Amino acid sequence: MCGVKGIVLDASVLLAAGDDENESPSLGHGADYVLRKLRYSNIFTGISYGPDLSAPKVRLLQENARLYSYNCFVFRSSAIDNFVSEVSLEWSDNIGSYMHVVSSYKDEEISQLISSGWLVTVLRSHGKASDVEYSPGTENPSKIFINKLEELPLTVCHLNKKAMGKEVKTIGYLMKPSREKDFAKRGAFPLNPTPNGLIFVALNYELPMSRQLQEIDGILHKATDDIITVEMSSSSDLENKVTYSEGMQELQRYIRCHPDCCVIDPFRNIYPVLDRLKIQQILGGLENLNSKSCSKIRGPHFLKVVDFREPKLEDKLVDAKLSLPNIVKPQVACGVADAHSMAIVFKADSYKDLNVPLPAIVQEYVDHSSTMFKFYVVGKKIFFAIKKSTPNADTLIKLAEEKELKPLLFDSLKSLPVDKDNQQQSQNEDNKRIDHELVTDAANWLRRVLDLTIFGFDVVIQEGTGDHVIVDVNYLPSFKEVPDEVAIPTFWEAIKEKLTGKQSTEAAILL
Fold first, then answer.
1. What is the pLDDT of residue 430?
2. pLDDT band at 376, cuts 50/70/90?
3. pLDDT on residue 280
4. DSSP one-letter string for 443-491
5. What is the mean pLDDT of residues 409-438?
6. Which helix (H) or strand (E) holds 183?
7. Is the dihedral of CA 484, 490, 493, 499 positive or negative?
8. Among 16, 112, 229, 458, which is disulfide-ready with 28 (CB 3.0 to 4.6 Å)?
9. Nearest to 413 by CA among 348, 349, 474, 347
10. Largest Cα–Cα separation, the chain
C-alpha cells in the first residue's frame, strides 16, 4: 500500500447541508478547519463538484480554492475515468494514492475509483442520508469511514504511517492557530513523511483526545497558548498553580496515565519559563561560566516587588544594584493577557501609582546601543539573529521629559521607539562584538538546566562593561529569522532525536 499523495474534497463534504438554492451558500462544520490544515500539509489538495451544482455554490468553492491555492475538478459519475485522468495529469502520477472525500456515493462509483487505485473516504454524518448504506464493518482497505470532517488529517496520518512502516513516527502538535500557521507555512508540519521519517498532525480538542493519541508517537505543544490563569505567590513552584483549558487538561490526564507517551518538552520543564523570578534565579548560575573568558555573561540585576507602595522600596532597589531607569515586568512571563504589560520607570516616586500587574520584577535597564541578539536553541544546534532594540537610557529620558518623566508603559509584543539619531552599526560589526564561545557555553548550560529541546533567549551587550546580559528566555520560539531551508530540517532533527532518546552533543552556534 502507498501513502496518500493527493486529496480531493467533494462539495458534499464542504458545503453546509440543507442550504436553500436561493440562499447564500456556506461551508459546513469542519470544512474551514480541513481546508486550513491541508494547505501546508505537503499533500496535493483539490475540490470537486458536479456539473449540476448551483452557480452560487460553485463560486463559493472556487473562492476557497483560490484562497488556499487548491485545484478545482468537475466530477461526472458518467465519466469517472476522465476525472481520474484530469487529477493525475494536474498533479503528476507519482508514487502514492489519491483520495476522494465524499458524503454520498453509489457503489459503482466507489468500485470504479478503487479499481483506478484511489482511496474513498466517506463522511457518514453530514446531515443527509447517503445514497447507499455503508457497513461499519467493511474490510475494504480502500474505503474508509469517518464521522467528522475534522478526523480527516488523522486518517491520512494513519494511512501514511501504515504505508511507510514502523520507522515513520507521528507527531501530534498543539498551539494557537496563528502560531501553527507561522510554522506550517514554512513547511514544518507535513502530513507526508519528512526526510527523517516524521509525520505531523494537529490534535483537535473537538475529537476524543485518547483516540487521537493512540496514533501519536510524540507530542509537541505550546502549552502556554492554553493557559487560562496563573497564580503567582511566594512559592515559585507553578505545577499546581497554572490553570489550563479543558482540552489541555484532558491531554495532561492522558499523559499521566500513559507515562511512556513521549512529550517533546514535558510540561514541568516549561514552568520556569513562565516565571520571571524563577528565570532570574536560574540565570544567577551563569556566574560559573565566566572564569575562562574576558567577557562576562549574566542575568540582569532584579528585585521582586509585591507592593509598589511599600515604604522601603527605594532602599531595596539600591540594595539590588538597581539604578534608574528600571524596566518593570509582571512576574508571570506568558500565557495570560497582561504578561507583557510593562513599564520603564524614570523616577522612584512613580512606583506608587505604577500600573503593572503584581507581583512584578524590577529589572536593570541595560544600555545596549539599540541592538539585541536573539539566540535559538533547537536540539543540539544554536542559531542567532541581530535585531534592533530599545534606545539607551539617555534617549528614553529625553522622550520621557516631554511627559514629565512619567513611566513609559508598553506591551512587549509591540515595538518600542528606536533612537533614529543613533546610527546602527553594521551586522558584521555587531557580530564581532558578541563572544560566541561564551554564549555557546551559556546556551548549552541553559539546555541542561532547563531540559528543553527548543527554546530561545535574548542577549544584550552592556555599553562600557561589555557584559553579555540575558534579558529574556522563552519556550518554542518561531526562530523566523533563520532561513527555512536550515531551520525546518534542524527542527525535525531535534524532534527525532528526542523521540529516539539520542543524547545531544554540545551545541555550537551556526553563523
1. 65
2. very high
3. 94
4. HHHHHHHH--SEEEEEEEE-TTT--EEEEEEEES---TTS-HHHHHHHH
5. 69
6. helix 177-184
7. negative
8. 16
9. 474
10. 86
pLDDT tier, 125 (very low <50, low <70, confident <90, very high otherwise): low
Angle between helices 436-450 and 276-283 (to 10 degrees): 120
The Cα–Cα gap between 158 and 212 comes to: 10
Is the confidence at residue 452, as pLDDT, over 50? Answer: yes
The stretch 434-444 carries a mean pLDDT of: 92
Nearest to 172 by CA among 264, 74, 283, 51: 264
262: β partners: 218
Amino acid present at 13:
V
b/e string for 40-60 if b means 16 or more Cβ within 10 A? bbbbbbbbbbeeebeeebbeb
Mean pLDDT, all residues of the chain: 87
Geometric angle at alpha carbon 347, from 387 and 393, rounded to 5°: 25
Q: What is the DSSP annotation of 136-179?
A: TT---TTEEEESSGGGHHHHHHHHHHHHH-TT-EEEEEE--HHH
Which residue from 376, 377, 419 is spatially nearest to 394, judged by alpha carbons? 419
C-alpha separations of 10 from 45, 76, 153, 186, 278 in Å: 11, 12, 16, 27, 52
Other C-beta atoms closer than 10 Å to the C-beta of 461 total: 22
- Local structure of residue 108 (DSSP, 8 states): H
Mean pLDDT score, 28-54 = 95
Of 457, 455, 444, 456, the C-alpha closest to 503 is 444
Q: Of 314, 244, 304, 250, whose CA–CA distance to 279 is shortest?
A: 304
CB 51 within 8 Å of CB 34:
no
Q: H helices of 55-133, where?
A: 55-68, 80-91, 107-115
Q: Whole-angstrom Cα distance, residue 69 to residue 410?
A: 38
Helix (H) or strand (E) holding 180: helix 177-184
pLDDT band of residue 398 (cuts 50, 70, 90) is confident
User: Is residue 119 helix, strand or coil?
Assistant: strand
Query: To which residue does cell 567577557 refer?
Result: 295
Grid cell of 266 as nine digits: 514535558
CB neighbourhood size of 145 (10 A): 16
Q: What angle do CA 417, 422, 427 make, to 5 degrees?
A: 95
| HEC per residue, 245-300 | CHHHHHHHHHHHHCCCCEECCCHHHHHHHHEHHHHHHHHHHHHHHCCCCCCCEECC
Is the pLDDT assigned to residue 133 strictly greater than 50? no
Q: What are phi and psi of 184, to 5 degrees?
A: -65, -40
pTM over 0.90: no
